[in-house]
Amino acid sequence: MKLNNNTIFDCNLVELSQVSTNSGYTTILENGKNIPFDVKRVYYLYNIPTAEERGGHAHYELEQYIVAISGSFDVILNDGVNKKRVTLNSPNTALHIVPGLWRDLTNFSSESVCLVLASHIYDAKDYIRDYNKFINKKNEIFLS
User: Is position 120 annotated as part of the catalytic site?
Assistant: First the structure.
């Protein structure tokens, strides 16, 4: 597979609408309305010890929305040249991650919950789990 030439500057924070009532807040995510891809998979990470890291990979094709449903954590984006740390700490803010970027999730607060909405079902072939391989693939793009 060929790696996409997206950069960290192609990722953005998205404020999600919230409906407020006397009984609390509701945030709604819908395919075709406020998500720029069709969601094919949803999963969440929780009970992560503060010192642990998650992620540590890149995707060839998969896009993601990542939301801190509870607590906070950092997402470190890396395009092979630039790095950017994004702190997620609000259930109505999503980080849109485009394909072709390395991501690490760190600095989890106690009882944080990380919701991930993904554009594809799980496919092991879509992952790059070796950082050196990722850098080599990105260099191929820059040199072509």
Answer: no
Strand order in the sheet with 12-15: 12-15, 93-97, 64-70, 113-118, 41-46
DSSP string, 88-114: E--TTEEEEE-TT-EEEEE-PPTT-EE
Q: For residues 42 and 94, is the Cβ–Cβ distance under 8 A?
A: no
* pLDDT per residue as tens digits for the range 71-123: 999 999 999 999 999 999 999 999 999 999 999 999 999 999 999 999 999 99
Helices (H), the chain: 131-143
- CATH code linked to domain 8-143: 2.60.120.10
Render pLDDT for 91-104 as a digit per residue (tens, 0 to 9).
999 999 999 999 99
- Catalytic member of 57, 59, 96, 120: 57
Prediction pTM value: 0.93
CA dist 126 and 128 (Å) reads 7
